[in-house]
Amino acid sequence: MTTHAWFAAFVVVNILDAALTLYALKLGGSEGNPLLGALMRRVHPALVLAATKGAYIVAVGAFLPAVAPWLPWLTALFVAVCAWNVVQIMRLRKTTPA
Q: Which of 12, 38, 57, 66 reaches 20 to 30 Å from 49, CA-CA?
């Protein structure tokens, strides 16, 4: 894949992570990152996620040539985070009454 294709995948996976995190929070889950969790207790979680994900995306985009060799690994990291979110959502759905 080209660098730009990896960057597009990175953006999509980060947006998916934010959406899954918000859904898990709605089901009663909690943020796994202690810094973001503390911030989410003071500011709306959607705003926190938009700011942090936006910062990740802008930073990677700004330094794309330097980050390019790491982009598949960064993308894979967030794919793993999304998979973890899905597992947690499945657990929460089993324990949350409809």
A: 66
Running DSSP on this structure, what letter comes out for residue 32? S
Q: Is pLDDT at 96 greater than 90 in this prediction?
A: no
Spell out a b/e string for 49-72, using b for 16 or more CB atoms within 10 Å of the CB, else e. Answer: beebbeebeeebeeeeeebeeebe
What size, in residues, is the chain? 98
What local confidence, expressed as pLDDT, does residue 97 receive? 67
Tokens of 95: 């324990």
H or E element at residue 42: none
CA–CA separation, 73 vs 79, rounded Å? 10
Identify whether the C-beta of residue 75 lies closer than 8 Å to the C-beta of residue 6.
Answer: yes
Per-residue pLDDT band at 95 (split at 50, 70, 90): confident
Pairwise CA distance, residues 52 & 39, whole Å: 11
Question: Where do runs of H (alpha helix) occur along 27-70?
Answer: 34-40, 45-62, 64-67
